[in-house]
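Exercise 7 asks you to align residues with tokens for two separate proteins.
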Amino acid sequence: MTQEWILCPVCGGKTRDRLREDTILKNYPLYCPKCKQETLVAAKDLQITVIKEPDAKTQSR
């Protein structure tokens, strides 16, 4: 079974999480201890995709 470390999509540093080839992630909050950023990711077949969150809209009255 192949395992790989998940790399931060912001800085490229190694995170504390690993993926196996049979792992499937949806809306996973990936935290990077190096740059201290949290990114929402999805993973399938050792391929990581960054999920872009829509910006919060302010409520107008």
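Second protein for Exercise 7:
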Amino acid sequence: MAASPAPGGPPTRVVIENCAVATVDAHDTEYASGHVVVAGNRIESVGPGAAPEGLTNVVRRVDGTGHLLTPGLVNTHHHFYQWLTRGLAQDANLFDWLVALYPTWSRIDEDMVYAAARGSLAMMVRGGVTTAMDHHYVFPRGAGDLLGAEIRAAREMGVRFSPTRGSMDRGKSAGGLPPDFAVETTEAALLATEEAIDTHHDAGFDSMLRVGVAPCSPFSVSTELLREAAALARRKGVRLHTHGSETVEEEQFCKELFGMGPTDYFESTGWLGEDVWMAHCVHMNDTDIEAFARTGTGVAHCPSSNARLAAGTARVPDMLKAGVPVGLGVDGTASNESGELHTELRNALLVHRLAGGEGALNVRQALRLGTHGGARVLGRADETGSLEPGKLADLVLWKLDGLGHSTIADPVAALVLGAAAPVTLSLINGKPVVEAGRLVTADEDTIARDARREARRLARIARRLG
């Protein structure tokens, strides 16, 4: 696969060398001192030692001494709007947390979502995320173009984006948790989802924007919406996403309402398959895991959020052994206030060793979850998630020669087990988005100021309207 030429001529090249390289390819190839050459928006070469001599059109050379180069991190689950409600309902489980926060979330509007998306994206991108995902499912009447606000924020920041058009049609009066005025009719949700795909989705190899179909959860959507959404997604050739098996209460809800557990219910509605991934999947038995493995259904593992809401520990080591595609997710920042994905590498490893012993997960498996695993879950493993010639130039150079990592000889262990590593350089689609730990595509201080303003406005409106 050749590198993409620059308009009007051969591609320009960026050379990164003298760094440790973790390719996260099929063989976990690593180089103690190696190089990567980027040509246009593609990786041209990866290997040990210095870059090849005689390269033309080199516009930048980066000395990576003291650094580790990895694929960019891939986030597989998030709720950007929650950036405005961090630190609330601090001691609640999932259902109590939702009941506490839905009245506020139901008052969001386009300006709020834009500010929240910028805050959420900024935290992820400055921490090594190159492909972001969001699950937006709250669409209050008259709130404006909420999905469009997220897409605009991602485009301005230069991040590869996989938004999913979520939906809810089961309000409080129908036994759901959200207020009735914050849910849509089944027909309206399906029409809006199809319009989002037709307007925004780009299926190209180097696409910066892929749209998915994402009814919220079994307890906030009707069976009809689940079935029709799956049919819509497959007719349009896009992926499907939802929450699944997050809590014991959800399992009880499904058994009481549908006479079966979540996995069987999802299968009965067409929601298992290689084009599907689900967030959390904490409470799954052997039969559930086998069903996910058999159908290629993916999992977005969110260790910090699961811990914050006391949801439990997903059986990720068992899923990996069975062949289930698994990636990492930040989840919404109202249940993972850090909003960062690189800290999930460490948290995933620690959580699973607590649950399953020292052999449950190792540092390289943790890195794979956050890179190639996430790309596989999003259906983009042929394009990103590893450092290989022909793949998209989404990569991160982590600084490991400072105090925090100074005595950890293994660079992958330093990244996963050590303190959060600074990002010296991050490229998305071959373009720099982070330099020396700071965003270059947006002003962080402005993002923080605007988000504070919108969070205060949301709180005032929620208090006034109840």
